[in-house]
Amino acid sequence: MGLELFLDLVSQPSRAVYIFAKKNGIPLELRTVDLVKGQHKSKEFLQINSLGKLPTLKDGDFILTERLTGVSTSQGGCWHITEMRFSKCKAEGPAKSRCPSSAILIYLSCKYQTPDHWYPSDLQARARVHEYLGWHADCIRGTFGIPLWVQVLGPLIGVQVPEEKVERNRTAMDQALQWLEDKFLGDRPFLAGQQPVALGYELFEGRPRLAAWRGRVEAFLGAELCQEAHSIILSILEQAAKKTLPTPSPEAYQAMLLRIARIP
Q1: I want to staple 101 with a disulfide (CB 3.0 to 4.6 A). Which of 88, 152, 235, 258 is the partner?
Q2: DSSP labels for 179-246?
Q3: Tell me, what's the pLDDT at 21?
Q4: Any bridge partners for residue 84, and if so which?
Q5: Which pLDDT band holds residue 199 (cuts at 50, 70, 90)?
């Protein structure tokens, strides 16, 4: 059997690996694990990954994962695409995070010898990848994941996030976007220079430079692939309004309560 990827496209790190593999023609057997239903906490999946996290890559007897699973969105929908430079973000809060899919992206890039711009061989260019990864994990993923908990996942289990936390998160998102624009994008076409690398982006209303960058990333990846990968997360608010989201399992319910309690 070839490579197996356990994922849920509601999870941004899962989408990042999915897009990267599709764009580079990497053959993967996809195994969907429903996060909202709590299937990542099932006995069957825990036998594959005892941490119960997505995405998870299985290459024969070799299993690769990282400590964090995330679902993320922002008001009005979220576009967390990869701009090719392994950066996926956290869903645990503003500190102590990892980049959930970066190890898988790097592994696939090296195994299949993808074009150099995805994971540069030049030492300094590669260092820029890891520089952004660290910042992205600390300042983007946890911050931009919170609106999903506020708008969808909290109400799904009958929990309301206090308004002062919601407002604090709005301020943090605005600051993070300013840093993204000023430090990492600047006047370059992509975050790391002249070609795409593997990063993420959010909703950029009122930020024309970031919106233009997002457009370049979408054009590079292809609109069809972007829509395919993001259709689930883009429809999740509608599903929540119609009350068609599945009921979380008891195991997932406890994990969700803990995650909501950690919102700063």
Answers
A1: 88
A2: HIIIIIITTSSBTTBSS-BS------TT-HHHHHHHHHHHHHH-HHHHHHHHHHHHTHHHHHHHT-SP
A3: 95
A4: 197
A5: very low
Buried b (16+ CB within 10 A) or exposed e, 241-252: eeeebeebbeeb
* Cα distance between residue 84 and residue 129, in whole Å: 9
| DSSP letter string, 50-74 | TT--S-EEEETTEEE--S-------
The stretch 11-39 carries a mean pLDDT of 92
pLDDT at 189: 67
pTM: 0.79
Distance of CA 39 to the CA centre of its chain: 18
Closest CA to 209 of 193, 174, 185: 185
Partners of 190 in beta bridges: 193
Q: Show the tokens assigned to 40.
A: 């990542």
Instruction: Return the axis-axis angle of helices 208-221 and 223-234, rounded to nearest 10°.
Output: 110
Helix (H, G, I), strand (E, B), or coil: what is residue 34?
Answer: coil
Structure tokens at 7: 């994922």
